[in-house]
Amino acid sequence: xxxxxxxxxxxxxxxxxxxxxxxxxxxxxxxxxxxxxxxxxxxxxxxxxxxxxxxxxxxxxxxxxxxxxxxxxxxxxxxxxxxxxxxxxxxxxxxxxxxxxxxxxxxxxxxxxxxxxxxxxxxxxxxxxxxxxxxxxxxxxxxxxxxxxxxxxxxxxxxxxxxxxxxxxxxxxxxxxxxxxxxxxxxxxxxx
Length: 192
What we know:
Organism: Paraconexibacter antarcticus
Keywords: DNA-binding, Sigma factor, Transcription, Transcription regulation
Family: Belongs to the sigma-70 factor family. ECF subfamily.
Helix content: over 70%
Shape: elongated
Number of domains: 2
Distance between the termini: 69 Å
CATH architecture of the largest domain: Orthogonal Bundle
Protein name: Sigma-70 family RNA polymerase sigma factor
Largest sheet: none
Region (Disordered): 169-192
Number of helices: 7
Radius of gyration: 27 Å
CATH class of the largest domain: Mainly Alpha
Order of helices and strands: HHHHHHH
């Protein structure tokens, strides 16, 4: 049986209050100079850095530099979450605002799109899914293993071309079947 993995946090060193009094304003200023973000987000990130300091009790050799790095990373993380939430909110607002009478047709088109997506190779499918979700080429490159911007662009270009090809094939097949249905409806005695 494996021993429990619970680790107890290191005990406070007693200098945390003094560190906070000495560095908290400078930390906020330094982070604000390093990143462009709303003031509230920078304050939240700095507070998270202080909480991390209390929880992990790192070495005190370069405390300010450590706090600054943790706070900047937190700003990036929080900014990413805010951008993603804003995109999701905008998408849901658009969906709710368009109480569309053609909802069934749109669902069928969505199913066709999902089918087309499922026919793509793994990398093209993953990249196209991330792009449709609102990620930039640079973000996709970072999320999928440090690839280059050009590699992501090439993969997306291939994926989009393949989807267009499938759409054209689908459109070529659809009119003939729709024509046959119309002929069958006009001549009920004739089998279609």
